[in-house]
Design brief:
heterodimer; A: about 220 residues; alpha/beta; Rossmann fold; 6-stranded mixed β-sheet; two-stranded antiparallel sheet; 8 strands; B: about 300 residues; mainly alpha; two-stranded antiparallel ribbon; 12 helices; about 70% helix; about 5% strand
Chain lengths: ~220, ~300
């Protein structure tokens, strides 16, 4: 069975399957975020189609896309700083379809990100950037999505935090989710992802596999193509 | 103490507190909808007016008190939800200016309908006039409605705080007021959140309609219009961006109006609005972000 989303920005087409990470890398303004926004229904593509489990989601409202099993970890995390960590997490439940064991899912999220459990009652605004990023991913995961979209989760994070985030993404993939990772950190993304598409000027230039992570020349060439 | 300094008796103080309570409820009704829609609903007073006419008609038809109150709630809530469905929802993506003008249009439309149906002389709601009678508490005569208003407002506040802090709908409303797009991306249904805010806002308008008709039994098409303008000023003075500061602003301006009304000599009471609005201008010049907003917070936007 195919489990995937196919997105198009300008002749951009790719597939995402359960249990894999697809990287989307490229310079600023390449159209990476726009691609994610189109999937979430924040932007409406002029042409083309975006399908989830084979059904088009074009024209659906963002909340309906979320409720269909697509969770976005937005750029800049967009944590509610005035709400507690727990309340932020509860907001993630809004997109949850009635299925699965909530307590078990919560436990898995807490295992993945212990800080989220530890600081449950604190205002989310008091967390560090890296902790907020973990909360943002946790908030997306409690919705029990099939597809996880991440928009530059490592932006502005200390190297140690980047390790935590990337390790978590590996664990999330192994759990069977389809992960689409938009990133600026090209080399790390290529090393982690099953496939990475290099995007520039709204089109896909090149597809790289983990084995290309060491090959910086190809990557740099693709960036400036 | 304050009362003694200004030469105000306890009865005036209690009445001022009650007026502040009623205005605080109106401020919450306006602030809740502003939070999720970034829309100042100028037609809020006309919702109260419609509820007051429902009460007046019920008392004219000789309905029992509870039936009149029920009719008032039904009319106001149906009108609120219609307003959301017909006006707010289709215009939600439009600019704030468009929505603002739309609420003006709704306000005038409702007022004109009231004028056509009931005439400019209005109707009298008498069924609740027993609440005008005073009770004596430690030597001070206080009208029953004063006590009822304070108790009802306190109950509404507690219920609202519980709703906002303990329920999912409340959490979704708070999140939507802070960052609506992110809330939608998390799966919070925009239409449901807005409808909830409009519904609660309508409930409060109905409660306010009941209490204001006790204070002013003569219901005319411009019923509650002046109150709404004063409350809007209070909400802006308090700080529109936060529900708590908007509520405090509504209470403060109601309380101040009540005190001033009691302190001014009777033959100069027509100057009361001038005093209130002069105070509003002074506050806005000193603290443009709102009297009760946190220091450093940005000034009121999109009003």
């Amino acid at each position: 069975m195919r489990h995937g989303a196919v997105a198009a920005v300008r002749g951009v087409s790719f597939a995402l399957d359960r249990g894999e990470i697809v990287g989307l890398i490229g310079p600023n303004g390449a159209g990476k975020s726009s691609t994610l926004h189109a999937v979430m229904g924040l932007l409406r593509p002029v042409k083309g189609d975006i399908r989830l489990h084979g059904t088009s989601v074009v024209g659906r409202r963002p909340e309906d896309v979320a409720r269909a099993g697509v969770a976005l970890v937005p750029e800049g995390r967009r944590i509610y700083g005035e709400l507690t960590v727990d309340e932020n997490l509860r907001l993630g439940l809004a997109g949850r379809r009635a299925r699965g064991d909530l307590d078990a899912d919560l436990k898995r999220v807490y295992d993945l990100f212990p800080v989220v459990e530890e600081f449950r009652r604190r205002p989310a605004g008091a967390l560090s950037g890296g902790q907020q990023q973990q909360l943002a991913i946790a908030r997306a995961l409690v919705a029990d999505p099939d597809v996880l979209l991440l928009d530059e989760p490592s932006l502005g994070l200390a190297p140690l935090m980047v390790d935590i985030v990337f390790d978590a993404l590996r664990a999330i993939r192994d759990r069977g989710l389809a992960v689409l990772l938009v990133e600026q950190r090209a080399q790390r993304t290529v090393a982690l992802a099953d496939r990475s598409h290099v995007m520039s000027n709204g089109t896909l230039r090149l597809t790289l596999g983990p084995e290309d992570a060491a090959d910086t020349t190809t990557m740099v060439a693709a960036y400036f193509a | 103490m304050i009362a003694a300094v200004l030469g105000i008796d306890w009865r005036t103080l209690a009445d001022a507190f009650a007026l502040g309570s009623i205005y605080a409820l109106m401020a919450i009704g306006i602030g809740l909808v502003f939070g999720v829609l970034r829309l100042v609903n100028f037609a809020y007073g006309q919702l109260v007016m419609a509820g007051a006419f429902a009460l007046a008609l019920a008392s004219q038809w000789g309905w029992p008190v509870w039936a009149g109150i029920l009719l008032c709630f039904a009319v106001v809530i149906v009108l609120s939800l219609l307003m959301d469905r017909i006006v707010f929802r289709p215009l939600r993506e439009q600019s704030p200016a468009v929505m603002l003008v739309a609420t003006f249009a709704v306000a005038f439309l409702l007022q004109s309908i009231a004028l056509l149906w009931f005439g400019s002389l209005g109707k009298i709601a008498t069924s609740l006039s027993f609440l005008q009678r005073p009770v004596t508490i430690s030597g001070v005569d206080i009208r029953k409605i004063t006590i009822v208003a304070m108790v009802v407002a306190a109950c509404c506040l507690v219920a609202l705080v519980l709703l906002l802090n303990k329920t999912n709908v409340g959490l979704h409303m708070r999140a939507a007021a802070m960052d609506f797009q992110t809330a939608r991306l998390l799966g919070v249904r925009a239409n449901r959140v807005i409808a909830s805010a409009v519904l609660i806002s309508g409930l409060l308008a109905a409660i306010v309609a009941v209490m204001l008709t006790v204070q002013t039994p003569l219901v005319t098409p411009d019923f509650a219009l002046r109150d709404t303008i004063v409350v809007l000023a209070g909400v802006v003075v308090g700080g529109m961006n936060r529900l708590v500061s908007a509520t405090l602003g509504g209470f403060a301006i109601g309380f101040a109006s009540g005190l001033l009304g009691g302190a001014l000599p009777t033959n100069q009471s027509q100057y009361l609005p001038s005093f209130v609005f002069a105070a509003v201008i002074v506050v806005l010049l000193i603290r443009p972000g709102g009297l009760f907003s946190r220091p450093g917070q940005a000034a009121v936007d999109r009003v």
